Amino acid sequence: MKNNMNSKKWIKILAVLCVLSFGFIGGINYLVDPFNIFHTKFLKEQFQMNERFMKIEYLEENKNKYNSYMFGSSRIGTTPPNVIDKYLENAKFYNFTISSANLYDYLIHLKYFIKSEYPIKNLYLQIDISNMASYSRTESDYLRKPHPFVVGEKLEKYYLSYLSGFFPFNIKGKIAENINQKDLVGYYLETGIWTRPLKEKKIKENPEKFIQEERSFNVQNKRVVKNTQSENNSKALKEIVDLCLKNNINLIIFTTPHNKNMMDTFILEDYLKFLKMISSIANFYDFTGYNTVTTENINYYESSHYRENVGRIIAARIFNDKSIEVPEDFGVFVTKDNIDEHLENLRKQIEEYDLKKTK
Where are the transmembrane segments (predicted)? Predict the structure, then answer.
């Protein structure tokens, strides 16, 4: 009898401790709000933000302000929508840049926009070459969890997952960002863009010093990224193209001008196969490779993200804007008829570039 009473006592103590622990973790998650889900603003500066949640939340109230969308990973996020607006009649673009986006993200959001009757006249779609090795999202990736409306889940369950989760890295990062404020990122929901004002200031003050001090520009990378998601990416891209045709959406596809240091991570033949896959489904503008823009580090904040000026010359090439100077070797319009010639040119270009690096 005594043992039974002791067992009940310990069960109650354990239950109380569990409740207190959950309350403590939930309180920290709510106050610090590492992904800006609850908008508590206890800490003003945002270290990371779940753009998939924030932007759908914003667009649900403001979708009729826009009739065109820019889809891409964070790399398209530095391009203001008005850069594209001027080239298409009565266009009002929104930059739907979302962290580490891949073709799965573009497909589920396009489906949701159509289903929810978002006005869409134009879709300006940027595809990263790194997408050849990625598809879908994991349940544990809280920074990139889709909005519950997009995947048909309950909002309450979504909030609870962010209250009860364990996010030491993200919490520490946000607290440090608010104390140190070394590399602030500005997020602008009305346009969808993000900015890096402190890095921009450093670049303008002393570009040579910036390049010397930016670690990602000064490392030697190996070609390790493979084309592992060919089937998934092919199906998703074809469905995106079909949805645009069916819904009378003007689709413009182009590839990301990755910095030379990021280009160095792609296995040559896998990268070329990925481009060929795109060309088999749709025409596109290819800005990849080692060209005047991608080999100049000053066009980038680090080896992953290009600056606003690059977004402007991408658009100038696509829309044939003669008022903006675009390097001759930057941007090729690719079709299934010229893809083989284009790939052969890229292969020679890359082999020559690799040869120069070894000398």
Answer: 12-32
